[in-house]
């Protein structure tokens, strides 16, 4: 009888019913976030293979070099080509005239 009365009192107590799970969530989330944020700092410490690092440095592409490539390009003759929708075949869509393109293919 006594255990039954205690359990009923604990179920009715709003602090134990809502407050304790909330505190457990906050404290547990804090520890969880600490572990997940530590992964970011551990990943920085990992050393890359020197051969791969050389390849990455040789293939360095900068914003300025890409700008120099397209600086003299003219964009007056470009076409706006719509990509295929999920129900359309991408191979058939490219190169079709606009009237056929407007019909739904299944």
Automatic annotation (TrEMBL):
Which InterPro entries does UniProt cross-reference here? Answer: Cyt_c_Oxase_assmbl_COX16
Basic and acidic residues bias spans: 79-88
> Which compartments does it reside in?
Mitochondrion inner membrane
Q: Where is this region: Disordered?
A: 79-106
- Position of the signal peptide: none
Q: How does this protein sit in the membrane?
A: Single-pass membrane protein
Keyword Protein transport among record annotations: no
Q: Where is this protein primarily located? A: mitochondrion
The name under which this protein is listed is Cytochrome c oxidase assembly protein COX16 homolog, mitochondrial
């Amino acid at each position: 009888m006594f255990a039954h009365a205690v359990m009923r009192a604990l179920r009715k107590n709003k602090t134990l019913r809502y407050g304790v799970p909330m505190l457990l969530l906050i404290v547990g989330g804090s520890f969880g976030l600490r572990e997940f944020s530590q992964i970011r700092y551990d990943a920085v410490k990992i050393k890359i293979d020197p051969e791969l690092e050389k390849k990455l440095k040789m293939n360095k592409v900068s914003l300025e070099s890409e700008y120099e490539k397209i600086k003299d390009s003219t964009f007056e003759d470009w076409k706006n080509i719509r990509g295929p929708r999920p129900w359309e075949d991408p191979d058939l869509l490219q190169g079709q005239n606009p009237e056929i393109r407007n019909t739904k293919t299944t």
